[in-house]
Amino acid sequence: MSIIKACIFDLDGVIVDTAVYHYKAWRLLANELGFDFSEQDNEKLKGVSRVRSLELILQWGGVTKTKAEQDELASKKNAWYVGMISHMTPAEILPGAKEFVETCRQAGLKIALGSASKNSGMILEKVGITYLFDAVIDGNKVSKAKPDPEVFLKGAQALHVAPAECVVFEDAIAGIEAAINGGMRSVGIGSPEVLGKANLVVSGLNEMSLEKLNAL
Ligand code: G6P
Ligand code: MG
To answer: Is 77 close to ligand 1, i.e. is its CB under 6 Å away?
Structure first.
């Protein structure tokens, strides 16, 4: 394997814990439609696009909607979600995340964001870490969802590095698969049972170090 030149970070669940806001907003929508869904079901929405998340939720509730109605529902959820994240502060950065990205930068590594969220830019601004990223590839710049590697390949391209020189940090299995599909190494953030396909699994970026990174 070639030397590591860049790190690509997913946002939700890796840098910030926005899953709780996504869950709250989707639940409000489901409740309005007359059903509810569990926290376990919510796990299946991690790393999944807005449109696909809505399709899954409607399936769980046994509800059928036209494409136009689905667009309206997705917009409604997003408006609630944006209302919630507009109150985010730097205190909501996950433990060790900012420090580890800073350590990587100081070591001369290039840094990109690779997220499915169309709200990435706003979240980075709210928690005050936009300056840490050399490139931001988010849901507005990709058309194929993870496990397609598009988001990470565009990240590598923006950083002018080869896929084999990148390490991806992801909390979703679809994200780890996307890294593998793109020919990149990966670090899973979460439990080894779920993210076992990654080269290394840690519970959070507070457990990462340059030594661990270079040993991948
Ligand atoms: C991330 C989250 C998903 C979310 C997706 C789209 O991948 O893990 O839960 O559905 O982004 O986010 P958006 O902010 O564009 O609705
Ligand atoms: Mg994620």
So the answer is: no
